[in-house]
Amino acid sequence: MRVLIIEDEKKAAAYLQKGFAENGFTADTAASGDDGLHLARTENYDLIILDIMLPGRDGWEVLEELRKEGSEVPVIYLSARDAVHDRVRGLELGADDYLVKPFAFSELLARARTILRRGPSRQPERLRADDLEMDLVGHKARREGRPIDLTAKEFILLSLLLRRKGEVLSRTLIAEQVWGINFDSDTNIVDVAIRRLRRKVDDPFERKLIHTVRGAGYVLEAK
């Protein structure tokens, strides 16, 4: 799942990005309303975390523009403005929630997951292929009932492969979805990550699930 964090305070944005990444999300950041609106228009996000006081367009304008254009992406306002009329305004503009700073990240994460579960494009809580199973909420992976110890990036990578099992995913697509970057074709970051993931997911087991499609990318499927 991809999250866009529109926040001009660098430390706050880095804190949020790290927190979401550690919990299985790919998180992009934007430091102004204009940049955030551009990303929201040109990329596909499952959730937007939106500050109000921003350079350029403020958070009110960003959400208003998105809703006018028909975007239904869930939005959580995260702001130091705690007046009742501010909260009401945010909800009336089409925000799905409003959380006042300072906040506990655990609460923000819980609210984000609740919104994603109840939305029209509800995300599955468990993914499965053959004897491999992932619990996205509990952040656990098992194969043949045995736990697999994954890093945060490995968890995101494996969940991407599982969500789109049977589909060949290019290295560029994987890099964009897992690392949130466009990368040079000579970079081997994806190949290295796949090798490490195979050591944990495939090497200890007879049946192999992660396959290389020469010249195209990678696919997860039971053969």
TrEMBL record:
* The UniProt record lists the keyword Transcription: yes
Q: According to the lineage, what is the superkingdom?
A: Bacteria
- Per UniProt, residues of the Response regulatory domain are 2-116
Q: Which residues form a coiled coil?
A: none
Specify whether Ligase is a keyword of the entry: no
Protein keywords: DNA-binding, Phosphoprotein, Transcription, Transcription regulation, Two-component regulatory system
Mind telling me which PANTHER family this protein's record contains?
Answer: REGULATOR OF RPOS (PTHR48111), TWO-COMPONENT RESPONSE REGULATOR (PTHR48111:SF76)
Q: What GO terms are given for molecular function?
A: phosphorelay response regulator activity; transcription cis-regulatory region binding
Q: Species name for this entry?
A: Geobacter sulfurreducens (strain ATCC 51573 / DSM 12127 / PCA)
Name all OmpR/PhoB-type domain ranges. Answer: 124-222
Which cellular component terms (GO) are annotated to the entry?
Answer: cytosol; protein-DNA complex
List this protein's GO terms for biological process.
regulation of DNA-templated transcription
Q: What is this protein called?
A: Winged-helix heavy metal transcriptional response regulator
Query: InterPro entries given for it?
Result: CheY-like_superfamily (IPR011006), CusR-like (IPR006291), OmpR/PhoB-type_DNA-bd (IPR001867), Sig_transdc_resp-reg_receiver (IPR001789), WalR-like (IPR039420), WH-like_DNA-bd_sf (IPR036388)
Residues annotated as carrying 4-aspartylphosphate in the record are 51
**Feature: DNA-binding region:** 124-222
